[in-house]
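Budget justification note: compute hours in this period were largely spent on complex prediction jobs such as the one shown. Inputs:
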Amino acid sequence: MSAPRSHLDSLEAEAVHIMREVAAELERPVLLFSGGKDSIVLLRLAEKAFRPAGFPFPVMHIDTGHNFPEVIEFRDRRVAEIGERLIVASVQQSIDSGRVVEETGPRASRNRLQTTTLLDAIAEHRFDAAFGGARRDEERARAKERIFSFRDDFGQWDPRAQRPELWSLYNGRVRRGEHVRVFPISNWTELDVWEYIEREELEIPSIYYAHEREVFARDGMLYAASEFVSLADDEQPFTTSVRYRTVGDMSCTGAVRSGARTLTSVVTEIAATTITERGETRADDRVSEAAMEDRKREGYF
Amino acid sequence: MAELLRFATCGSVDDGKSTLIGRLLYDSKQILADQLQHVEDVSQRRGDGSLDLALLTDGLRAEREQGITIDVAYRAFATARRRFIIADCPGHEQYTRNMVTGSSTADLSIVLIDARNGVVAQSRRHASIASLLRIPHLVVCVNKMDLVDWDESAFDAVVAQFAEVAQRLEIPDVTFIAISARLGDNVVERSERMPWYDGPTLLTHLEEVEIASEQSLAPARFPVQWVIRPQDADHPDYRGYAGRVAGGSLALGDDVVILPSGRSSRVAGIDTLDGDLDRASAPMSVTVLLEDDIDVARGDMIVTGEELPLVTSQLRARICWMAQSPLRVGDRYVIKHTTRSVRAVVDGVEDRLDIETLRSDQSAEELLLNDIGAVSLRLSGPLVVDPYSSNRETGSFILIDESSNDTVAAGMILG
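Corresponding output:
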């Protein structure tokens, strides 16, 4: 019994502890689930924390309407399999009701619009805590964010006014209208997530595996040709074998050339990669040096 | 499988701390092409002749603009042997508060000393905080050896100076490493220029240092976080106590006491999603089932019979004060300790420490931002505590200001 525990065991124990603290100390938590690999890990961790009972919170997806159909299919199936309640908050509805205005042009994306939909949903359901799958290794601003990230009643993150986080004593106290974003896998890396998916034999959407897809090149990345993007004159779609490393909107998530059709070969490729996850696949972070920091201040995930 | 080691680094810009972390990440091949491109671009834009590895730990925009570091950053890296989490604590603003925060979860702390300057006030502060927070291992990196011509006597002088500090602070395990973070000597790659140095490189030491088994050898402590009661057809009577083992281990069949009530029972099962266990040890998260149908709730602690913790409504504690307004006698706060929160009144301020020497000033009547001192607290209800010196989990707490909801103090219970 005194055998050293693996880093995945340690990270899992920490994340389960965090989830139980939130369930116990906050009144109305919600788990944000996108169908992506990080939130798939969150779902498993919630099972580890609360089974054989149901989750003491619902699962919520912010649906931009530009998601990969494979991911939406997976989302509905996975949540049904584990028997939990899914809330879908729709960016399309925010557009239809005039809360946000659709961007236009070849680089239009609904990425930024999600923030309004998320904050509206949090207010509507009076959630006071939202679990997210963000990790500190993803981006520079995230490295400085707490596990319990306090948001004011505008949903904003103020990096200079963070609560000190000591030992495993989390302070999730909020006033009415405020909430905390809680990141149980803050200390995980991309490789940890993949190794955990492999160890736990978790199902993931098919687009994470290599598949033939019609894509086009833009800014050195490959994007899916879809009804959600308009191509410039010099952008020619072609078909090749790709997989996705992150799951975001079809309009701003890049694919990676790959022949990895099994989980083991995907993990091998990730372990050997030379580019960060966001650098390789997310157009939303390329806008400026502090793109993520700015979006977080506005209330982004 | 690789184990996890958490370590803290602390220092100001001039110490070469960011360069050291950058060097660790770079030489252990953790830096990917796009991150390196960013460093190259910025180095070039600033007109630096060489690659400034400190840029790899660049943070928020305000920090880049002002050339300072505001807050603790957490970084991850891995080798084939271990997975590491670095709590990277800035030295300028909020020095003590940041270092206490970053150190609270660390198994090891790195103190950087400039070989040209030897032990300075800041080195003593680092050592004091590592000692107060009871970080099991301390590593002193004697940096900038390139600027003292790789001279052994410069290294020896720092070792002698620091050994004195360590002895006074009762720090049991100190390792000294002669390095140049800028050039990479003895960080990941062994230095050819200091043949007289026969110790490990920093990375080798980080990979080999024994991770505290202290916590799992301590008496059993299991603070209950959450009660699992499915109340469905498959589990009509299931009542599981979910929590994380905070010390020692619990085994099937163990006689246990539930505190503060003092009722006793026996461990009837240890559940996880992956099946039942015979034993759970710190820091595992599990669900404990008891033989008797007794009232156990969040905030209770399940412990084994020998070496019981103290059930008390009075505490003496060493605290680090983290708020702008001072702590004074008569002030009221919420105290969060393990999974239990009660109200606390400050009954007395016993002393304030000089953080460089750890000398006690007993004339202190209040504690200011970044002060460390001893206080006595009167509680609205009992807590189940151990001294911090015997258990970092059940011996620590935070104070919360109910009007702002801010965390205003880190506390370590005195025995």
